[in-house]
Specification:
This protein is of the alpha+beta class. The chain has one domain. 41% of the residues lie in helices and 13% in strands. The chain has 3 helices and 3 strands. The chain has a 3-stranded mixed sheet, covered by helices on one side.
Length: 109
C-alpha cells in the first residue's frame, strides 16, 4: 500500500483473487436421495456393506470446481474487496482510494 504524504490518497495493490481447491468433507456431507434399482435395494437388504460415496464426492468436487471457474466469483471477490478496503481507508480519513489487483496467469485456477 502506498499513501500520499498528506494522507489523503492511497493505492492498495493485491494479488488477483483465485479459487481454492474444492474439498467435500464426507463426515459433514449427506446424500439426501438415491435413485437405485431393485437389485441394489435387494443387495442392501441382504448384505451388510455400507454404501461408499467416495466416487460420488469426487465427481461432485469436479463439478463444483468447474461451476466456480465458469462463474463470476473472481469478479465478485474483487468488487467486494475493493468496496471493503475503500470504506476502511475512507473511515481512516483517506479521500481517494485505488485498489488494484495483479493480473496473473494463476488467477485463472
Amino acid at each position: 500500500m502506498s499513501l500520499s504524504a498528506d494522507g489523503t490518497t492511497a493505492t492498495i495493490e493485491l494479488p488477483a483473487p483465485r479459487l481454492g481447491e474444492v474439498r467435500i468433507d464426507p463426515q459433514e456431507s449427506r446424500v439426501l436421495d438415491r435413485d437405485r434399482g431393485l437389485v441394489d435395494r435387494i443387495g442392501d437388504a441382504v448384505g451388510d456393506d455400507p454404501v461408499d460415496d467416495s466416487a460420488l464426492y469426487a465427481v461432485t468436487e469436479d463439478r463444483l470446481t468447474a461451476a466456480a471457474a465458469a462463474s463470476d466469483l473472481r469478479e465478485r471477490a474483487e468488487t467486494n474487496t475493493r468496496a471493503m478496503l475503500t470504506g476502511l481507508a475512507r473511515s481512516l480519513g483517506v479521500d481517494e482510494v485505488e485498489v488494484r489487483f495483479e493480473d496473473t496467469a494463476d488467477s485463472a485456477g
